[in-house]
Design brief:
The complex is a heterodimer of chains A (253) and B (265). Chain A is an alpha/beta fold and 253 residues long. Chain A is built from 10 helices and 9 strands. Chain B has 11 helices and 10 strands. In chain B, β4 and β5 form a beta hairpin. Classes of the chains: A alpha/beta (253), B alpha/beta (265).
């Protein structure tokens, strides 16, 4: 027992890109030997520019994409039921919700799948409770996703993830498509939820301001590799790598 | 000094059948020669609609219901289509968030820039080709000959935006409207494009109307900032006054969010 909730060892991922009828398939290396371990109840910020591999890493951790090689292993003492205990929230809430499913049903669906609550009344009450937890008035649970704003839809996705009573959330640019004032409100919600449910977060973002606001430790990625890793405060006050310094300089303008 | 651009009491409505919705309602804005003005606001605040009105690029379902758009002393709304065509592209240039979607995928970069030059400046083919290469060099593209032969899909987002800026500057406009030109780019590339725009502005002395949701850019480049919210301008001032003593509730809310996560200390 190492005290780590997640250990990632030498993760590699190659994608094959079809270049057309006569072109040879092109291999793209999205992850090129990524290793790290993280403590339970921490927020690990993963920062990098587009193409750095941060989303591929998030998807592998959440079990949505198999790695080409390497492992991502959870401590089974904390994560007993992977499918239930590890949840992911994506950047685009418009794409994550079924447009023809009432939001109350969308939130209740995991409860049915994991047989956590049964009976129509029980499901409805729990869905209402979950919506309330994320700041959505439960009386709107019979509406469809299109009737909500982007920020509200992301809250609904969060309620759906929380339905499983997860221990570990992978947040892949969860506020990037939203206005800044809405982003702040959601980040505050993520903070509250973490305290309340003792969650562990992997938070992927291209925005250094958000990483600084939320993360305990940080991984800086570039071209599928970890360029630098450390405590959040150290990365921002004393970056060791040239690339980290360049990113910070660009963000500071 | 006389204003280059003056927008007076502009009202733009969408969905004219049934009940129209005003996306812009009573906007006043001015821009002096060689001035950099940033128009900032969140989604749906009306900042792009205001800018598109100036360039005559509103979508067909939008209607300018009232107000004036005065550019170099003339109300653009009173110009005929032909007269407007001589202003837009030549004196007013526009760059967008997604340059690749405004470049034609089946023509080379070089031929698209050259087309602007032959159309607006009346250059012959040889002169247009030479001028194209010097424009590409102007926007700091390393290998102008190679890029001129490329198609938009062969270039990165940042490179396409440089190409778009080259095209916008082809006719030496008096006004450049930049509508979220760096929003889809990585921050290191964003910083390069912003520096490039500032440098070119110094060199050519055009006025820059920069539309953004990103207050950090406003702080960095603006001489004056307008803050828009729900179709109106809620506050206007220097970056110092907007950031240090915001007056309107919405500006305060924006600055508070910016201080929390928009600004990297």
């Amino acid at each position: 027992m190492t005290g780590h909730v997640l250990e990632v060892k030498d993760l590699k991922k190659e994608f094959t890109v079809d270049t057309g009828m006569f072109g040879l398939p092109l291999k793209v290396r999205a992850l090129d030997g990524v290793s790290f371990a993280m403590r339970a109840f921490d927020t690990l910020g993963v920062v990098g520019e587009s193409g750095s591999g941060k989303t591929t890493l998030a998807k592998i951790i959440a079990g949505l994409v198999p790695p080409s090689s390497g492992t991502a292993v959870f401590d089974t003492g904390v994560i007993g039921n992977f499918r239930k205990d590890v949840q992911i929230i994506f950047q685009n809430p418009y794409a994550s919700l079924d447009p023809r499913m009432r939001v109350g049903d969308a939130v209740a669906e995991p409860l049915v799948i994991h047989r956590m609550v049964s009976g129509r009344k029980g499901l409805q009450d729990r869905a209402a409770q979950l919506l309330e937890t994320v700041g959505i008035e439960p009386s709107v649970m019979n509406r469809f996703p299109a009737q909500f704003s982007g920020g509200q839809r992301q809250r609904i996705c969060i309620a759906r993830a929380l339905a499983c009573e997860p221990k570990f959330l992978v947040l892949d640019e969860p506020v990037s498509s939203l206005d800044l004032t809405i982003q702040v409100k959601l980040l505050e919600l993520f903070r509250q939820l973490k305290e309340r449910y003792r969650l562990t977060y992997v938070f992927v973002s291209h925005n250094l301001g958000i990483i600084r606001y939320l993360a305990d430790s940080v991984i800086v990625m570039k071209d599928g590799r970890i360029v630098e890793r450390g405590d959040c405060a150290d990365i921002f006050s004393a970056p060791r790598q040239e690339y980290t310094r360049a990113l910070l300089a660009a963000a500071r303008g | 000094m006389e204003n280059l651009l003056e927008i007076k009491n502009l009202r733009v409505e969408f969905g004219t059948e049934g009940k129209p919705v005003a996306a812009v309602d009573g906007v006043n804005l001015s821009l002096r020669p060689a001035e950099t003005v940033v128009l900032a606001g969140e989604s749906g605040s009306g900042k792009s609609v205001t800018a598109l009105s100036v360039a005559g690029l509103l979508p067909p379902e939008a209607v300018i219901r009232s107000g004036e758009v005065i550019f170099q002393g003339r109300d653009l709304r009173r110009l005929s289509g032909g007269e407007f065509d001589r202003v837009r592209g030549r004196e007013i240039a526009y760059i967008f968030q997604e340059p690749a979607s405004y470049l034609d995928p089946v023509y080379t970069i070089g031929s698209q820039i050259a087309e602007t030059l032959t159309l607006h400046q009346g250059l012959d083919t040889g002169a247009a080709a030479r001028e194209t290469l010097s424009l590409l060099a102007l926007v700091r593209i390393g290998e102008p000959e190679r890029v001129a032969r490329s198609y938009p899909h062969q270039l990165s987002g940042g490179m396409n935006q440089r190409v778009f800026i080259a095209m916008a500057l082809a006719c030496r406009p008096r006004l450049l409207i930049a509508d979220e030109p760096t929003t889809s780019l990585d921050i290191t590339i964003e910083a390069q494009i912003i520096s490039l725009l500032c440098e070119l502005k110094e060199k050519f002395g055009f006025s820059l109307l920069f539309i953004t949701h990103n207050l950090a850019i406003g702080r960095r480049i603006a001489e004056r900032i307008y803050i828009m919210h729900r179709g109106t301008v809620v506050e206007e001032g220097s970056p110092q006054s907007i950031f240090n003593s915001p007056a309107h509730f919405h500006t305060k809310e924006l600055i508070a969010a910016y201080e929390k996560i928009g600004r990297v200390k």
